[in-house]
Predict the structure.
Amino acid sequence: MILVTGGAGFIGANFVLDWLAQSDEAVINLDKLTYAGNLENLASLQGDPRQVFVRGDIGDAALVGRLLAKHRPRAVVNFAAESHVDRSIHGPEDFIQTNIVGTFHLLEAVRAYWSGLADTEKNSFRFLHVSTDEVYGSLAKDDPAFSETHRYEPNSPYSASKAASDHLVRAYHHTYGLPVLTTNCSNNYGPYHFPEKLIPLMIVNALAGKPLPVYGDGQQVRDWLYVRDHCSAIRSVLAKGRLGEVYNVGGWNEKANLDIVHTICTLLDELRPRADGKSYREQIAFVTDRPGHDRRYAIDARKIERELGWKPAETFDTGIRKTVQWYLDNQGWVSHVQSGDYRNWVEKNYAGRA
Ligand code: NAD
Ligand code: TYD
């Protein structure tokens, strides 16, 4: 079996669902269930003995040690993290605790377990760390996309904490020989995406008749990948990646934020037209920019394509249509995640913006 951390969050839940749709290898799912963790994402696995869910913290080395000793996984895939840039600006401490200190304790527990394995199990064991392109900082308009050797230049507390965790993972390979792999992926979108991030926020606000808050001039560029393509990339790296290597994952889909919002409005105009016949674009509102806002991210994905033969299955057009349709079909999920905590966050992040 494999141990997945953060498997009740957006990408982790998609990964667990895809993994068990394709194989019978069981998953231990360790998740703290922060505001971003949601067992409803895994509802289709209820009663399925192939998933063992454990509520707990990656920073609890004793708990992780017990889970490793009991279940003896052949791999750990680490998704658990605080993941939202705006929250890291309002309160960086949780990011330091989970992304840096938590990853450190997780690595220590995994190292102790791995050291005690017999040679064959030791050689085949893998620790895969899921990271982000944001560690590389911001690109100017005509700069080449981020390759794996691009220097680290994180600009937000979130990206700085992820950068620190990447460095720890690297150091555990070089110092202790821990068999690690790291993936740095671009922005994901798709089902179960928590509506604090750009794409799901715009869909749910549009449907609720609320403003669509575009930061600054809306010309910041992100490189978007459908979440299930990220999951297939992680499976490829886990199966075939070279030890100690970093793989950048992206879909060659650079888009300006305003273009994304326009695309969502156009799809909703077609799939769920407004009662007054006007376009959802009427709801767009330009608001005060995010402090330290990175202008552009872009991933050079040639290494994973060349070495592992990985390619995304979705284009942006097919992926965004599926995503908008998923939110239309899962309004119950949306209303459940918009709890009191969610409303407090929206108030905190948007009320002070002109
Ligand atoms: P998310 O915020 O939706 O989910 C994070 C999950 O981790 C939640 O289920 C949460 O409960 C859990 N968690 C948080 N702290 C924990 C702790 N201390 N111990 C155990 N579990 C804990 O995040 P996501 O968007 O699914 O991202 C998953 C990973 O992928 C993160 O490491 C993130 O940095 C990385 N990543 C995300 C994106 C993206 O676009 N979302 C892109 C590239 C990389
Ligand atoms: P986000 O989904 O938070 O991802 P990240 O900051 O990790 O790239 O934001 C994506 C882009 O959308 C980013 O440039 C900030 C912008 N954005 C808005 O313009 N308005 C919003 O309300 C949000 C949440 C994001």
In short: The domain at 2-192+225-253+296-314 is CATH 3.40.50.720 (Rossmann fold). DSSP finds 13 helices and twelve strands in the chain. The two ends are 50 Å apart (CA to CA). The first strand starts at residue 2 and ends at 5.
